[in-house]
Every structure is written in structure tokens, then in C-alpha cells.
Sequence to fold (364 residues):
Amino acid sequence: MYKFLFRPLLFRLTSDYAHEITIKSASLLGNYKWLQKSTEALYGYSNRSLEQKIGGLRFPNPIGLAAGFDKNGTAAPFMQSLGFGFIEIGSVTANSCIGNPKPRTFRLTEDKSLINRLGLNNEGALTIARRLKYRELTIPMGINIAKTHDPSITGEKAIEDYRTSFELVKNIADYITLNISCPNTTEGKTFEEPEALDYLLQSLGIENDASLPPVFIKFSVDLDDSQLLELLDICEGYTIEGYVATNTSSLRDNLQTSESVVHRMGKGGLSGRAISKKSTATIEKIHSYTKGLKTIIGVGGISSTEDAIEKLKAGADLLQIYTGLVYEGPALVKKINRGLVAYMEKHGIDHVYHIRKIKNLQGK
Ligand SMILES: Cc1cc2nc3c(=O)[nH]c(=O)nc-3n(C[C@H](O)[C@H](O)[C@H](O)COP(=O)(O)O)c2cc1C
Fold:
């Protein structure tokens, strides 16, 4: 129904407007319990083989909503009713921010990809934390934090900015993701510079506080091997639950869309099918470096069960989707979860975690 009815209608609108309408509707619909229940009956899917306990949290299935979709945490209850196994709100920043001027999101339909330069628009950590304090979700809710999009906030002020958000969300979030890889800031710099990251992790006091929720670090898909290993080396010195791999790309690789069209769209992070392989390769490298001991949330171009299996085999424990939802619609979550169960039955395995073993047994 989405592909034949809603997508053609939404795709007649600009990408920015379509998202605004979607998020407003989802936020509104979430206020009606009966509607949530009917949505859940339609889109929900549960199976014991998909359940996992990670970082002390129970994930009913491995498919999560990626950061960026629900930046202000207004749509979380409705998104839960779409069958997600967890949700990541944000990125949230210490100061509220209107983001970059519109247009700021673009569809590359041929590539089932998007380019966005939203620029960390959000209502600010305090407002969002107050909103989420009383949320009633039955699935884990992560909060993704980033530095406020303001080039005048650098050095110690940048650390303080991060710390403000961290302190505001640490008692509300089931897990926290540090988005160190947002490519859409005016200053163009990120905390993916090794010294900056080390100082940030030290300043947040992560290793000294057992009461904190699990902390994840989100990497860009554009890191080369040596950059990734250097950052992992730093992160592994702290009490980190795991990694979110990956964020969007600033490059324009693997595209069918014509160069001139892409050029006209301008700067921004590329997401969707175009980054899928690179994101899977990053997952593989993290899995191998951490010897499978850290939790990996795999994200980047998942729009089918096959994409999900590829990432699980690379070492991901949990998965997230954003761009796939835009192209495939909300039924994608159930479709992938069902597909995973069918795949496990076919291969005689009883838990989603063991999907990665099939690579070793059958060479693919
Ligand atoms: C419009 C848009 C906005 C995004 N905003 C954020 C954000 O605020 N914080 C973040 O960590 N990632 C953000 N992302 C990145 C996604 O969380 C995800 O890492 C990336 O899009 C790859 O997944 P996908 O191919 O399934 O979209 C955004 C992605 C899109 C498409």
C-alpha cells in the first residue's frame, strides 16, 4: 500500500516537506492509544529467536529506528507501534538549533539514497529531555547527542556543550550514542580527530561512573582503515558498550544518478543503498578489531532482509534503518524481521545472533 499509494503522494512533495508531514502525523497519532494498538496489530511481529539482551536492555527484535528521523523525540510512541525493536532519538544538542536553510534533503530515487544537510536542527537537550522523561515505551530508547551546530563553540566550550547534553539525558536514555561524525556543521570539523575524541571521552567521565547507561560511539562511513583503527584504539581505552556503524558519507561514490543532478543538490551526507557496502565493511573492521566483544549497531543502506543479513554476518548485533523507510515504507520492519526468522528456519539455527555463523559454515 505504501509503495502504490503513500509513496507516490509523498514523493510529489519536496523531501523536506514530506518528512515534516510524516513526523507531525506520527507525533499526533502517537497520542491515541487505541490507534497505536491497531497499528501494532498490523505492523508488529514478535518471535523469541529475535530477542536479545544487550547492555542490560531487552531488545524484542534487532531492527531499530536510526537517529535523525525523530530528532525531538515527539514520534517515539508511534514509531514503537510500527514494530521497531528500539529507537534512537536525536541528534540532540545542548542549544536548540534551526539547522541549515531549506531545501536541505534530497532524494536520489534511482539509487534509493538521500542527501541531507539538515545541520543538527533540534529543540535542544533540555526541552527534549523534559519531553522524554515521562515517555511510556516498552522498547529501549537511545538518545544520540552531538555538539551544537555553531562554529563559535570550539575547544573547551565544545566539550562543555557535549557535557551539558550528556548530563541532561543520562538518567533518561536507555543508552547514549555520541555522534562524533556529523558532517553537516559549518566548521566542517568533527570529534573524529583522535585527540579531540580522547579528550571528549575523558571529560565525560565515562569510565568512572557505573551508573551510566551503555554508551555507543557513532562513526562516519568515510574513515579510512588507519583513521578507524586509531579511533578504535582510543575508544577501547574507555568503558564503551559499542559502536554505531555508520553515519552518512560526504563522498558521492556508487551513484547511478547523473553527476550534474547530484552536483546541483550540493553538500550533505549521503545515505541509503549507495553507502551500504562501505558501511558493512566498517562493521567488519570494527568486529575484527574488537574480536567480537563489543556491541555493533549496523546502519547504512538496509532496505531488505538480505541487506540486514549481510550486516549481521559482518558482525552487527543490532541494526537501524532510516533511508530504507523512505523508499520501502513502514512495513519494512516487519518484512525484515519475518525474513530473518524464515532465514534462520531454513538454516536450522535458533537465534538471530547465530546468523553470523552461517558465513563460516557455508562460505557466504
Ligand atoms: C535526513 C537524515 C537526517 C539524519 N540525521 C542524523 C542525526 O541527527 N544524527 C545522526 O547520528 N545521524 C543522522 N542521520 C544518519 C542516520 O542515522 C544513518 O546513520 C544514515 O542515514 C545511514 O542509514 P540509512 O542508509 O538507513 O539511512 C541522518 C540521516 C538522514 C537521512
